[in-house]
Amino acid sequence: MNRVFKALTVCLSLWLSANSQAMTLERVGNDLFATGPTVDHDFVQFKEALAQGGIERLILVNGPGGDLWTGMQVARMVRDAKITTVASGACMSACSLIFMAGQSRAFGTGSLPRVTMVGIHGAHDRDSKRVNSTFMPQMFAWYKQQMGDRFDAQVMNQALYDIQEAYGFLRIRELQRTQEKDRTPWFCPTGQTPFDQCQQHTGKDAFSLGVVTQTETVPLQ
């Protein structure tokens, strides 16, 4: 199944091109900082970094997404390592899979509050950008497992299955540094959908949906 999964090279990213560079990993003490897109050989990078031991936090800095297979494999490694994940800036698409692997999860400083968010959407083909529903059940199961009792099946079904193209997203902002009105998650089926036509999930936020495990934003140096 994994070989088929990888061969299809389903891409989750909004902004990646075929020539995107790999993530940049940098360890600072017990923190591992990861910046940039998720591509095939990031699996090896993460495996080597985590094998060194002693990592307590994975800080994802502006991750635009990338390869689905790699994102899932890295996510499982992070889950097994039982470390904390922190999203600084926008953690979109495949990055959100890795973020959700954290034993505890939080937003971090480093970017403006309004652009500090997690973005979730369904899989699509790298070249055509067309939605590919083949692996949606696996993604759905992953989010359900990691979100636990706060998992909202209706919201996640919409995020995964109702996108019309690669640029559709459920966007979920950080909490502590934003005004209440800006904490409401919103879903746009396409990248061209006007904001006032996107669905607002009033009464919900990153914490109530189980995306983060705390409401406080983590200060980062």
What is this structure's SSE topology?
Layout: H1 2-7, E1 10-11, E2 24-28, E3 31-35, H2 42-51, E4 57-63, H3 68-81, E5 84-92, H4 94-99, E6 105-107, E7 117-120, E8 124-125, H5 136-147, H6 153-161, E9 169-173, E10 186-188, E11 199-200
Parallel strand pairs: 3-4, 4-5, 5-6, 5-7
Antiparallel strand pairs: 1-8, 2-3, 7-9, 9-10, 10-11
Helix pairs in contact: 2-3, 5-6
Name the features.
nine-stranded mixed β-sheet; alpha/beta; 221 residues; disordered N terminus
What does this molecule look like?
The chain has one domain (2-200): 2-enoyl-CoA Hydratase, Chain A, domain 1. The strands form two sheets. Strands 2, 3, 4, 5, 6, 7, 9, 10 and 11 form a nine-stranded mixed β-sheet that branches. 26% of the residues lie in helices and 21% in strands. By secondary structure, the chain is of the alpha/beta class. The model is unreliable at 1-19 (pLDDT under 50). The termini are far apart. It is globular and about 45 Å long. 42% of the residues are buried. α2 packs parallel to α3. The protein contains six helices and eleven strands. The longest helix is centred in the middle third of the chain and has 14 residues, at 68-81.
Low-confidence stretches: 1-19
The chain-level mean pLDDT equals 89
H-E string: HEEEHEHEHEEEHHEEE
Q: Which architecture per CATH?
A: Alpha-Beta Complex
Overall shape: it is globular
